[in-house]
Amino acid sequence: MRKKLLIYVVAWFGLIACTGHFKDLNTDKTGITNEDMQIDLNHLGIPLNVIQQGIYFNYDFGKGKNWPYQLMQNLSADMFCGYMHDYKPLNGGTHNSDYNLQDGWNATLWENTYAYIMPQIKRLEDSTRIKYPSVYAVTQILKVEIMHRVSDYYGPVIYKNFGNERALYEPDTQEDVYQFFLNDLKDAVDVLREYAADTDEEPEFSKFDILLDGTALSWIKFANSLRLRLAVRVAMADPEKARREFVAALTDEHGVLEEPFELVKVSTENGYTNPLGEINRVWGEAYMNASMESILNGYDDPRRNVFFEPCPDDVLFADGVGHDSVRVALKGQYRGIRQGTMFAHTFYSALSRVYVNTNTDAILMTAAEVWFLRAEAALRGWTSETAGICYERGVKCSFSQWQVPDAEEYLQGDRLAADFTDAFTPENNIKARCLVSPRWDESASNEIKLEKIITQKWLAIFPEGCEAWAEQRRTGYPRLFPVKYNNSRNGCVDTEIMIRRLNFPASLLDSGMKQYEMLVDALGGTDDAGTRLWWDAGKNF
User: Which of 4-8, 322-326, 493-497, 501-505 has the lowest mean pLDDT?
Assistant: First the structure.
């Protein structure tokens, strides 16, 4: 049943037309009748599957599949956070990598979310609030999961007033929308708690759940954990609110994610395919980033072997008379690509590819991440927990999740990140930037302790680049390699401070100038990639 429903969803998207006009986004263009929607709870299942798959946006809506994810995430967040890089010299070698930002790429998360996902969220909200409270609550959690990612890319978003033509789809500032996110998570937990207390029946959303196990209690844990994530995100923007929200979520009676097997992920068991797997295995375009190489190799991190593949072979180059006699030793090594070097060759295809295939579940949140959130909260004095203990629990949880050994030995290690040596172009070589080791040091400064926490969290949430990029911008950790060439428009991005956000889509200038002006006003700064978001305070304490 679930597989058929997913196929139905895929076909459904061929009937939807994308639009840049907000007033049109909540109009049903699917061609599906009310009778169709009532069959076997399809009026719940179809929108729920659209929304859950929409987090990674992997379906064919008449223009092909997988490439939307590549543009929405892989050529932005996955690269900017230091995880991955494409081996191809796209756009002649100058593009997002060197901050020559491509609007046609960077608009896709905004446009696809608002054209395809938010209308289905609005439809479910309106139809389930009274009759199907458990579905309503899950929809609210999914809405926050999807829209905080959008806000973390751009800043202000249309959230509270989506679907409200009388309010002209007025945008929310990031400060306001984060409060809405936190409130919605709290309200969803209240609804699910009441639902679980009142009935032993399987929730209406259960058979459509492709992220968790279909139980109200698991969704409460997810909501509480997500609330921790968002509370920590605003730690410097609104410290007191952050503390209150964090403590309230952590002390909820139903708990948060804690065990290695407690993962929130888009399951591939019933028809969903991981778009990163297609990009990696079929297209061959997802490789290790130099910053990841530096840290994994420097730490001799056991997770390296499950995150990436070693280089398959050495590379031979022709000498001056055409003989293949110049050998670059690569076989068995883990090697990556430095961002922003404007390379014009395809030699990097010989380097290390990511582990993900089309059948790999798409990870959204791990229990290890939650332990690192708890470590930071303890470091800030929000809780009575011990930062070092939570930190070590996070590392051990991550090792268990990936089924790699020797976490205890790793936690005693004083190894540092390695200098980067480009496999083919010595001019791209650079000294290591990450100068903290895995071993916890109780005598270190809070800044050093935070750097250790975030560096290990960055490793633990791999390969989820959206969250990694947000946290790297918020804290400055891990310390990534800067771009060698900075071709940002009008020099708006500082090479050392690095990119802070994506521009609003240029399509808004053509189809919604008033909308664009309201968004820029809500941003409170210039609409460029160097403007900091509200939670991006530029300091950690």
Answer: 4-8
What average pLDDT does the segment 403-410 reach?
98
Which residues, 6+ apart, have CB-to-CB distance to 451 below 8 Å? 436, 475, 477, 478, 479
> In 39-65, which positions are buried (b, 16+ CB within 10 angstroms) versus exposed (e)?
eebbbbbbbbbbbbbbbbbbbebeeeb
Nearest to 397, CA basis, from 518, 472, 303: 303
Question: Is the distance from CB of 76 to CB of 153 less than 8 angstroms?
Answer: yes
Please tell me the distance from the alpha carbon of residue 236 to that of residue 335, in angstroms, as a whole number.
36
This model's pTM is above 0.70? yes
Reported in sequence order, the residue ranges of 332-445 that DSSP labels E, i.e. its strands, are 362-365
How far apart (Å, rounded) are the C-alpha atoms in residues 11 and 530? 40
DSSP state string for 223-235: HHHHHHHHHHHTT
The token pair at 382 is 């929000």
pLDDT of 30 reads 40
Rounded average pLDDT over 396-401 = 98
Domains along the chain with CATH numbers: 2-65+107-255 (1.25.40.390), 275-475 (1.25.40.390)
SS3 264: strand
For the stretch 279-284, contacts whose Cβ atoms lie closer than 8 Å and that sit 24 or more positions apart, written own/partner, are 279/66, 279/69, 279/70, 279/74, 280/353, 280/354, 280/356, 280/357, 281/356, 281/357, 281/358, 282/358, 283/66, 284/87, 284/349, 284/353
Q: At 318, is the secondary structure helix, strand, or coil?
A: strand
Q: Could you write out the DSSP letters of every residue in 85-136? A: E-SS-GGGG-SGGGT---HHHHTHHHHHIIIIIHHHHHHHHHHHTTT-HHHH
| Max intra-chain CA distance, the chain | 81
Q: Token pair 């990556």 is at which residue?
A: 336
pLDDT per residue over 11-66, tens digit each? 444 333 333 455 554 444 344 455 656 666 788 999 999 999 999 888 677 677 89
What CA–CA distances, in Å, run from 484 to 339, 352, 428, 429, 435? 7, 21, 7, 10, 20
Phi, psi of 355 (to 5 degrees): -75, -15
Identify which of 143, 150, 146 has the alpha carbon closest to the alpha carbon of residue 174: 150
| Residue predicted with more confidence, 272 or 432 | 432
User: Up-side HSE of residue 340: CA atoms within 13 Å toward CB?
Assistant: 24
